[in-house]
Design goal:
By secondary structure, this protein is mainly beta. The protein has two helices and 14 strands; from the N terminus they run E-E-E-E-E-E-H-E-E-H-E-E-E-E-E-E. It folds into two domains: about 110 residues, RimM (Elongation Factor Tu (Ef-tu), domain 3); about 70 residues, PRC-barrel domain (SH3 type barrels, Roll). It is elongated.
């Protein structure tokens, strides 16, 4: 798990938005992706899940998830969870054979916002930041946040300008001054040379 950092840390629950959830800014997402089913595991109805959350151990506490079937969200009861390398092995209640779960390959597992991890001050879900307007501390419109990259040292916000250019802003307190998902805006200080890249 990547430790929380004090200013504007982005908690990576829902690294990317599922296809059936709108990407435009129309309020906060009501479901957040926690993993993607990559394959079956064994013959007893277990699936391998690639976690898209910072804390794969959170699967231990999950009792219910939502499976994106491609046609809608299907509630699934989690019967058992274990870990293998970088994957989570999940067994759903009532699905006891490989035939029951083969069709779930490549499907997203989501949780409702009520079942999401609890965030601390200045922590955000990426899904709540994508699409926010980015303005400078001088009131100039910079563009729209399109992605958050994790580099190890600090996150990097990818901002697309109206002209289609991408600007990369380090998610550090000297640069990211205010994040307000409810207002739909992030206020930044553009450090010298950032726009010249």
């Amino acid at each position: 798990m990547i430790e929380r950092y004090p200013l504007g840390y982005v908690f990576r629950e829902a690294a990317t938005l599922p296809e059936n959830i709108p990407h435009e800014r129309d309020g906060m997402e009501q479901t957040l992706r926690v993993g993607v089913i990559t394959s079956t595991h064994g013959i007893r109805g277990e699936v391998k899940v690639f976690p898209t959350t910072d804390d794969p151990q959170r699967f231990r506490k999950l009792k219910d998830v939502l499976l994106d079937t491609g046609r809608g969200l299907q509630p699934m009861e989690v019967e058992q969870v274990r870990f293998f390398k970088n994957m989570v092995i999940v067994k759903f209640k009532g699905l006891d054979s490989i035939d029951d779960v083969e069709i779930f390959r490549g499907r997203d597992l989501l949780v409702s916002r009520e079942n999401a991890v609890e965030l601390g001050p200045d922590e955000y879900f990426i899904a709540d930041l994508i699409g926010l307007l980015v303005v400078t501390d001088e009131g100039e419109r910079l563009g729209t946040l399109t992605d958050v990259l994790q580099t190890g040292a600090n996150d990097v916000y990818v901002v697309k300008t109206d002209a289609g250019k991408e600007i990369f802003l380090p998610a550090i307190k000297q640069c990211i001054l205010d994040t307000d998902p409810e207002a739909g805006k992030i206020t930044v200080h553009v450090l010298d040379g950032l726009l010249d890249l």
